[in-house]
Each structure stands twice: as structure tokens, then as C-alpha cells.
């Protein structure tokens, strides 16, 4: 059995709907109308110990709902989950010792008390041995650079400072797996980078299994070789980020800067032989956009360099963020790692 195993997971939320009008209100009292909302429809996956996986999807796709079920906060409507051999919502206490969790939008620290008091409380709650606590606190405060914040009330911290403390708190009890729901949301570049470096270190040095949701592509590029994409409560992709790049990142941009202004007409004429290459000119800068599958980059570059060598030349592929939103839009169903998606057939 894999370290984390999720099979045919489903979560419905049933919410009361109020009817309008006087009779409606009365009727709602005696016979409430209910609406069922399917947040997670049918999701299956397996994660091995020590993996680092991104869990992606557009707003409302069901990411947070999945994480709440994985951490035992919510009970699935149907389907099964095991994390480190336990069913999270059934053995909540026992699995909490193995699990760390950070919700970027919610705090687990006590707002009016100094940061250190929240850590002490966690030490008590998880019965962390003093020596382990001391060692982790020392190491984590150093890497996350929060030592100077420990005596400050949580409510006085900036978002970036608080998030670093939240992440520290989630790992004090040496969990085997860390679930992160948008850990870098709203942070500046420096804070994001610090958090990424720390999470990466925990995964690499301590083998902490990671599952993280994010809308920040740099988080994924830096931390997660494996990517799962969900849409409307269903898994639509499970595989490497590289595979997506190689197979769907087809658009490439070339930017050439010259010492002299260019003529738009001559540029258009030069590249007219290549159907599908868009050439635009802005003073001394020429931009080419093309589909890598249809146009050979080397041939295109040769044409460009032979015509007139530019002062500077840069090349860029479609960014991964744009790419993934295209996957949502076009509803691609890709299956590069069949053994992962076809869990249903196994066991
Ligand atoms: N407690 C709840 N009661 C009713 N509906 C809910 C509840 N929690 C979530 N939902 C609905 O379930 C769907 C999935 O929500 P979820 O929070 O899992 O999305 P998400 O993928 O985390 O999105 P985001 O990127 O915006 O964080 C949404 O349509 C949401 O409105
Ligand atoms: Mg969410």
C-alpha cells in the first residue's frame, strides 16, 4: 500500500436553500429545501513516502476540500483515504502525529500570545520530547530566520513573518507528511523564496512527503517534480511538469534587438516563407512568435542571423501558468503515467 492512498474520493456539501416569499419562508421551516454541491467528484491517486507533489487546479476545483479530507478535518461522502496506514477522519488523533498541515488562509497560532507560546502549546499537545523540541526549534528558527520574532505577539507580525512561523509550527512534531494549502499566497518574493528553501530542505534532508496546492508556478517548478491537476472535482492530469512542458508548451518567443531601427514590412517579408510565424517590430526590436512543432527553431534562427545579426537575442517558451490555464480551458485529458491514473484497476 502506498504511503498516501486515495480511491474514488467524493465529497458532497448539502446546504439548505431558502425559498422566497412568505409561504416559501414558512415552507422552508417545515420542509427545508436542500441543494447538493459536489466539491470532489471522483479522485484517485497514490503518493509514495518522500515524494513532493503539486495539487493544482482553478478556483473551486476541490483542492482545499481534498486536503481537509486528507487531514481528517472533513469526512468523505464516499471513497477511501489512507495516510501512513491510518484513515485520517477515523483516527484523527493518531494520524495528527504523522501529519503537518498549513492553510495559507487560516492560522493555527494564538493571535494574542507570543509566537513561542503557540510552539510550547504544540509541544504539549503532541508530547514532543524536550530534546526533539529544542533541536527542531533551533534548526527551524535559523533556516526560516524567525528567531527574533519568538517573543512577539502573533497579531503584530507581517503576513510573511507569520507564515514562516506557521510552517515552523506545522513541523515541530516531526510529521512524516506535510500538507500545504497555498503556503506562499500573498507573500513577497523574498518571503516566498525563504519558505520554498525551507520546505525543499525538509523534503530532501528529512524525507518529509509534501503535497501542496498553489497558484504560484515558481513553487511548483522549485518543489514539485510531480504534478496533479484537478478540475471540477476530477483528476485530469497526473505526471511530471516536464511532460506538460514538452507536450503542450508549443509556443515560443524570440526577441532580437538591433543597433538600428527596423522596417516592419521587411521583417514581414523575410519571415513570410514560414507560415504561422508572427513577426512584429517595435523600433529596434523584432519579436517572433511561433509553434515549435510546426517551425524548426534552428532554420528560423539561421534566417534571422543571415539577414542581419542582432545585438541581443533571447528565447522564451510559453510560461507554465498560461499553459495550465489553457489545459483547464481546453479540458485536456492526458495520461502520461497510466499506472497512476488507473489505480481503480489495481489491488
Ligand atoms: N463547507 C462548504 N459548504 C458548501 N460548499 C463548499 C464548502 N467548502 C467548499 N465548498 C465548495 O466546494 C467547491 C470546492 O471548493 P474548494 O475550497 O475545495 O476549492 P479550491 O480548489 O481549494 O479553490 P481555491 O483555488 O479557490 O482555493 C467550491 O465550489 C466551494 O464553493
Ligand atoms: Mg483552496
TrEMBL record:
InterPro entries: AAA+_ATPase (IPR003593), ABC_transporter-like_ATP-bd (IPR003439), ABC_transporter_ATP-binding (IPR050763). SMART domains: AAA (SM00382). Keywords: ATP-binding, Nucleotide-binding, Transport. Pfam families: ABC_tran (PF00005). The keyword ATP-binding applies. One of its GO terms (molecular function) is ATP hydrolysis activity. Residues 24-257 form the ABC transporter domain. Transmembrane segments: none annotated. PANTHER family: ABC TRANSPORTER ATP-BINDING PROTEIN, ABC-TRANSPORT PROTEIN, ATP-BINDING COMPONENT. This is Vitamin B12 import ATP-binding protein BtuD. It comes from Paenibacillus solanacearum.
